[in-house]
Design a protein that fits this description.
This protein has a single domain, classed as Uracil-DNA Glycosylase, subunit E (3-Layer(aba) Sandwich), CATH 3.40.470.10. The chain is 31% helix and 21% strand. It has six helices and seven strands; from the N terminus they run ββαααβββαβαβα. The protein has helices spanning 31-36, 47-54, 63-72, 103-106, 119-133, 152-159, and strands at 5-9, 22-26, 75-79, 81-87, 95-99, 113-117, 138-140.
Length: 165
């Protein structure tokens, strides 16, 4: 496990399509996600299991399958943070934040709702993004393995608000 503090630029862009209606924001990619160059790459993160369960689909395995799952349900993915100083994958170590400019997505598709995957993403959204955009975001419980008090079943129930959009 990397215990060294590093200044890291978000290594990949957002995922969205012209029909995306719901934007889901993480905080910043984990070490595993940075290695894979795609969202929610840690095998213990329950994000892909939750999304697949919501839409009655198989859990995607490849990046191509993950992209297809998101886009086919008019979702979009990105993170609140564009660049930060971080130790490994630890959200609690994040500092010196530069936020992502969500207009890159919002100017190109009809996003109706913005949801944050966990408290850190929501905190960063509220501090750095919401004042500029003037749009609210709702906080959903984190799908991270660090959020052990939430079972997969409880996560699926909480995240079912996505299907209402």
């Amino acid at each position: 496990m990397n215990k060294t503090e590093q200044r890291i630029l978000h290594p990949f862009g957002p995922l969205f399509g012209p029909e995306s209606r719901v934007l889901i924001l993480g905080s910043f990619p984990s070490v595993k996600s940075r290695e894979q160059n795609f969202f929610y790459g840690h095998p213990q993160n329950r994000f892909w299991k939750v999304i697949a369960a919501l839409y009655g689909q198989e859990v995607p395995k490849t990046i191509g399958e993950k992209k297809a799952l998101i886009l086919s349900h008019r979702l979009a993915l990105w993170d609140s943070i564009a660049e930060c100083t971080i130790i490994g994958s630890s959200d609690s170590s994040i500092r010196d934040v530069r936020a992502n400019d969500l207009r890159l997505i919002l100017d190109h598709c009809p996003i109706r709702r913005i949801y944050c995957n966990g408290r850190k993403s929501h905190e960063m959204y509220g501090k750095y993004i919401q004042p500029a955009l003037g749009r609210e975001a709702e906080c959903l419980p984190s799908t991270s393995p660090a959020n052990a008090q939430w079972s997969l079943e409880k996560l699926i129930e909480a995240w079912s608000v996505l299907k209402e959009e």
